[in-house]
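User: My advisor asked me to double-check a structure prediction for Cysteine synthase before group meeting. I don't want to rely on an old file, so could you generate it fresh from this sequence?
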Amino acid sequence: MALLFFVPGREQTMHYPTIADCVGNTPLVRLQRLQGETSNTILLKLEGNNPAGSVKDRPALSMITHAEARGQISPGDTLIEATSGNTGIALAMAAAIKGYRMILIMPSSATEERKAAMTAYGAELILVSPEEGMEGARDLALQMQGEGRGLVLNQFANDDNPRAHYEGTGPEIWRQTGGRITHFVSSMGTTGTIMGCGRYLKEQNPEIQVIGLQPTEGSSIPGIRRWPEEYLPSIFIPEEVDRVVDMDQREAEEMARKLARVEGVFAGVSSGGAVAAALRLSAEVENATIVAIICDRGDRYLSSGLYNQ
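Assistant: Sure, here is a fresh prediction for Cysteine synthase from the sequence you gave:
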């Protein structure tokens, strides 16, 4: 929005940003103590600094903006999405910015902070049982679309999800490291972040290693999934990931607490897992520049008791 204002003797035009303009360009900071003595540099991309508090702000805005550009949707329409939390909050914000009705479907086991944030932005929330999980939420979203109740953006199969990271997050990391990045570490949920960033970074330097995280069997880590074959996101291309790390829930939670108490980085469980994986990697290599994605902020996990131990 351009605003005219007057200074004696001349007229000037000022361009002020909207909240949508504040998505992206997040800080990249150095790990200070947890890495110990090493020749490596471990850097954290603080995606919790996005306006709705997570890396998902990027694909949420991208999916809606590009759907508009293609003429698929227009303000006033109803959008539907299955989410474990962060994408739902981000979509609720983006829908509020652009004037859409947003219906979000998620497992009832999600933290109260996540549920409250979605409804605060004006979204309608439908809960499925923990047993139905994200698979059940995805099935219900497609069922509702089939009934004509709205359009499913489908972050799991929507190329505008990784596109947000190919065009935004990846170039930011390349620029912020001066092209020195050697390893990229990211949790894998929808896989949009690792697909988009990894693709861009390897185009700049094919030697960059792309490392993804999935939970060990029986572990429950918000934002990271070990999908059944029939629910594997179609945007995921396995051969574009050089290495997959199995992350235990306990290790991820312990690292999330250490990040807050030792580094002053207040982040969620998947971010703890990413840093734990980066530190494992650091023990294997020398003179590397390792970048880990910090997906969100820790404040949306307070009611889970994560930080009470």
